[in-house]
Protein 1
Amino acid sequence: MASSTARAQDSSSNFASGPGTYLFLAAGVGLPLLRDGSEGKNHFFRTADSGLSAVLLAEGLKRLTRVPRPDTGERDSFPSEHATAAFAVATMESDFHPREAPLWYAGATVISLSRLWEGRHRPLDVLGGAALGFATARLELSRNRGLLLTPWIDGRSAGMMLTAQF
């Protein structure tokens, strides 16, 4: 019985750490286009911007801190990018759809915990990633324009522009 329970947890954490993460992020970024009406494009770009900004910040922190992973010793453990991206998306979607906040945060928590269950991170890596994702999304929501992605319209064409402000 114990081995079947362990296999089920392994299977669940493998899914949450892999395909489940991608499905969660795709849903968080893509669903606004399908259900948020006239705000759909704005919510799509703002969520994508928050996630991208948070992951870029996490990558920078990984290169600065060089904390070894518990399973491989590779020096890229802090912060967990899975937790960072999941909490950035969960925070954005929770702001756009407050009644769904428990579901979005539960999904982000399961993804984050899966990184511990898989032995890829330590608790501090996951907590740091979750805090970074949450904080980046809150910063995104406090601004009129995106952190990295800005709409661009010149009369003949329109698109998104990648920007950086210091």
Note: The chain has a mean pLDDT of 90.
Protein 2
Amino acid sequence: MPKIEWPVRPRLVCSRCLGFDSCRYNGQKLSDPLVEALELFVEFVTPCPEADIGLGIPRHPVRIIVHDGEQRMFQPATGLDHTGSMLEYVERFLEDLGEVDGFLLKSRSPSCGMRDVKQYREDGQSLITGRGAGLFGGEVARRFPGLAVEDEGRLHNVEIRDHFLRKLFTLADFRRIGGIGRASELVDFQSRNKLLLMAYDQERMRELGRIVAAQRSAGLERTVELYGGVLRSALSRGPSYRANINVLQHAFGYVSDHISPEERGFFLDHLEMYREGRTPLVTCIKLLESWIVRFHVDYLRDQTFFHPYPEELLDRCGGLGKDEYWR
């Protein structure tokens, strides 16, 4: 496929310690390969809530304690409660943030963690069974349920990472066309993303088509608002391997009459291997792409299903068939 020029840089909020500054509690900085790869393609916003409220670098660790059913941020070494200053910071930061397309936050952090933060009893020592979100990460999840929101730990999983990147770049492109204010851009967006949306949610794909078709009566502003809500719902869970296979078979129908029986068999064998979890999704996609280029299938060439995010990020996302992460 020709090299794709990306029309928009997603605006991504990323924890500062993930490669941007030595701001962890121990004064260290983490290196994250995905963050490094994304630097060429996204606009980063890089908060460090604990450093930003003045806790210092390095600093005594803080913990999340649960008091009367409420989370509080406690620093055992000093006996100080930093809940108030942290909540004020979170409110101010998110209010002033402007439009963004996603969040990539530090896992297990008492401030940025999304779901795996240790929670302690009121003495700050006794670990409560189970884990939860940090004060910053929890509010992000509450306010931005439709955006691409993950922690760096979960993004080591290729399926989750692929879904995160697809969602991030799709939402950024939608934000771009919403800002242009032309109905033709929305029609084009729907057309280019048809197979991607088919993989994610066929029912909502059809609903989005109806919304676009009715834009004359609803007006463009209302249409974009309605479309955005349904789009975010459609992208809420990654596609299953069965849905990906359905899209691959659909696309294969455009080229199957142009190739030899041996080539057809070769592709179908790889499709079965993907179904069984023995080869990644990208293998089947690349086979199809070679025929799309060879036979000049313009409709498929423009489909974002085949290039949902920059090629340079593709080698970080394999996607074997059998595993399901969205049940």
Note: Confidence is low (pLDDT under 50) at residues 317-321.
Protein 3
Amino acid sequence: MKSFRKLLVLLFFMCTAGQCLALIEIELVTKARAKELGLEIRSIASGPNETRVWLEFPAKGEFKNFTHVSLEVREGDKRVMSALLLPDRSDPDKVAVNFTADKTTLAKSTLMVLVRNDGLSQVGYLIKVQDFIQPVRGK
């Protein structure tokens, strides 16, 4: 009887289990590579201690299968915060996202643009925000 139950449980898991083999290949984006990809990152002061950051990229080429952009703030190995950013697709040729953060947080912030590749794999374009923006002064 126990063997029969074990067999039923095994069959249940075999029938309900799906493949969950996803791979994300991560590329650290340099300024030169950002230019090649058509990534544009800009910033502006948004109050005395905050900065607004925009990321725009073409909705074609390497980004034609774009899925989302995530923002992550880390302190060392510890993730302080992560969020998906809402894309603005009002221009059919471009995708834009933006966020506002305290100036001290920008050095700890990364953006990742995820693009679906063939099959189950994805490419994540990792952008260290501090490498792309100029320090901005408050208003």
Note: The CA atoms of residues 75 and 108 lie 7 Å apart.
Protein 4
Amino acid sequence: MLEGQVAIITGSGSGMGRSSALLFASEGAAVVIADMARLRGQQAADEIKASGGKAVHVTCDVMEQEAANE
């Protein structure tokens, strides 16, 4: 359903954000995991990739303008 789409999900290293990232990936979207916690974010990305999905993790605080621009 979401093949060819990219989902950028903030706070996706845990909780509702992680659940959302897993759901989007299961529907075929490539997912950008944006989270301040490096380990949790990378684990979420790894889980998506292990199940055949596409994901990358970006450690950042999107509340900071400079981090969002990177």
Note: The radius of gyration is 11 Å.
